[in-house]
Prior knowledge:
It contains seven helices and seven strands; from the N terminus they run E-H-E-H-E-H-E-H-E-H-E-H-H-E. It has 264 residues and is an alpha/beta fold. A seven-stranded parallel beta sheet has the order 3-2-1-4-5-6-7, sandwiched between helices. Helix 1 (21-32) runs parallel beside helix 2 (44-56), helix 3 packs parallel to helix 4 and helix 4 runs parallel beside helix 5. The termini are far apart.
Amino acid sequence: MPRFPAHPDRRPVIVAGASSGIGAATAVMLGAAGYPVALGARRVGKSQEFVDQIIAAGGEAVALPLDVTDVDSIDEFVTKAEAQLGPIEVAVSGAGDLDPGRAHELSNDDFAAQIDIHLLGAQRLFRRVVPEMIKRRRGDFVFVSSDVVTWPRPQMAAYVAAKRGVEGLSDVARMELEGTGVRSSLVRPGQVMTGMGMNFTPEVAESVLNDWVPWGLARHGNFLKPEHLATAITTIVSMPRGAHMRLVEVEAEAPIERSEGDKS
């Protein structure tokens, strides 16, 4: 018997935060690659649009309500996903939102809310699905972090604290899971053009950017597309057993400088 049996032919996936952005793009890409996918989000109607897209392309998917701040919602989401798709082989934890504010001005409740959704939400989902993965001696859990962990940004203290917590959780989980057959991986995106942060008022956006510039945190105006991160996540979970992509950093490439002869 091989040391690492191959992945099963059918690998059901759950994606938390799948109504837009990275989560939606990941669900669509995994669906196109043949993975049955359960899209979890509070905005089920938005997730359903992507489910329709996956099914129209010949894939298998279902949209289910999910609030990662509620342990009962997580349990119900996973239970329904498994009832419709089978035991979960892959979990992607990417639910979250962004509420900017200086650390000394952000309310205690608003600060705690970001910790709750980004860090505790990831832990709740991890706790729900990983024990069963361990019993089957295989599985992938992917945490979505942010490059604010290495390059913290003003007006994002709560988000930075939460994502640093996520990376700490992922690092410890990786050590604790070694030898179980379950892989804990981390994706660390740079600036991505998603719905997160796009609801800022012009005044808030200007304030945030003005605080970033003195620290060299707005080097160029190019943004990643959600599909770039979906590609990274798909690559991680499709790695043959026996190999482990522990951390993947994805940054936006700076625009190519024009030469004198360029007409475009």
